[in-house]
Amino acid sequence: MIVDTEYGVDSRYTSKNEQENQATALMEARLKRMKNLSNEQIVKAKLMQLKLKMEEYLKKPVYDKQNYFSEFLKLYIDSIYSKRSNFAQDIDIAPVSLSQVINKHREPKEEFLMKLMIHSEKAYKNVCEFHKKTWYQVYYHEKICETMSNQEKWRPEIEKKVKLSAAI
Amino acid sequence: MRIIETSTKKKYSVEILPVESDDYKNIKKDRYFFNWKTEKEEEVYKLRIIGSNDILGLVSIERIPQEWRLHIRLLSVSKENKGKEKEFDNITGNLIAHIAKIAVREYGELACVSLKPKIQIAKHYIEKYNMNVTGVTLSIEVPEIIDLINKYDKD
């Protein structure tokens, strides 16, 4: 019998009982396989997860109080290093400066973003495609979202200082 | 993500988006093999060539966060993309890779995508997508899920 394999799959469970039995067996098998994962495989999965999270964030305007750039940066460093100071050393900055960026006590300098871009190129080389501009996009996306959502805070004062003298 | 026109080998960029309620007017069983209207309350995605409204493939999933797993409920290509005479290749692979991306984004190193095909076609999924077998369930996890995403997730 010739079976056409690629037209589709109906994979729905027919009962709760069937789903639970299969879930138990699957979880047992998965836990066994998970035990055999190497540290390198786990790091690769975490870096892929971070990339996908950043891509998702960039797809839409997000107006909330979360600090996405610094949260993603923390995830990035903690996926690769056991100590954040080792990352600071690898990109030749003082650990205290890194800490200030992570905790949003200071803005990252241009050089920091450049170093982060190059570091990510190296880290993602054997993991997946990672666009050079991703960290910049995340940083400026957050800035744009922040500025747009906080207009009621900054606009009244700034608007007083802006006029259009030319006739248009 | 890209699909390949089988007659010309030309590659087309595709997008995979959530199905909207209006889409169901055009999703008929005679073209998409299943009664997709029963999936209206589920999470359903459509695949189409960028710039076209024509749906070439569909997939519905169930999220099972307590197991860090996404289960594929239904998956189908459109009728003209079935069999040896199909117009485009890689539709199923892209749909599975899209679900794999959601799973890895949500669950990281614990991510899992599962499905439960009929015995006759299970072998195909095991071989083509490097899936693991547990009873009647096929699943893909780290590290194979990363390879699957890398295979299909190309600009």
The SS-based structural class of chain A is mainly alpha
Q: Write down the Rg of chain B.
A: 15 Å
Q: Would you count the extended β strands of chain B for me? A: 9
Approximately what portion of the residues of chain A adopt beta-strand conformation?
Answer: under 5%
Summed up, the domain count of chain B is 1
Written as H for each helix and E for each strand, in order along the chain, the element string of chain A is EHHHHHHHH
Give the low-confidence spans of chain A. Answer: none
Helix content, binned percent of chain A: 55-70%
Oligomeric state of this protein: heterodimer
Mean pLDDT of chain B: 95
Main pleated-sheet profile of chain A: none
- The appropriate CATH architecture of chain B is 3-Layer(aba) Sandwich
Description:
Chain B: This is N-acetyltransferase domain-containing protein. Chain B: It comes from Alkalitalea saponilacus. The complex is a heterodimer of chains A (168) and B (155). Chain A has helices at residues 16-35, 39-59, 68-80, 84-90, 95-102, 110-124, 134-149, 151-160, and one strand spanning 8-10. By secondary structure, chain A is mostly helical. Chain A has a domain at 39-149. The longest helix of chain A is centred in the first third of the chain and has 21 residues, at 39-59. Chain A is extended, with a radius of gyration of 23 Å. With 155 residues, chain B is an alpha+beta fold. Chain B has a 9-stranded mixed β-sheet, with helices on one face. In chain B, a hairpin with a 5-residue loop joins β1 (2-5) and β2 (11-18). In chain B, α2 (91-107) packs across α4 (144-152). The mean pLDDT of chain B is 95. The interface between A and B is large, with 35 and 52 residues.
Features:
heterodimer, A: 168 residues, mainly alpha, 8 helices, B: 155 residues, alpha+beta, Aminopeptidase, nine-stranded mixed sheet, 4 helices, 9 strands, globular, N-acetyltransferase domain-containing protein (chain B)
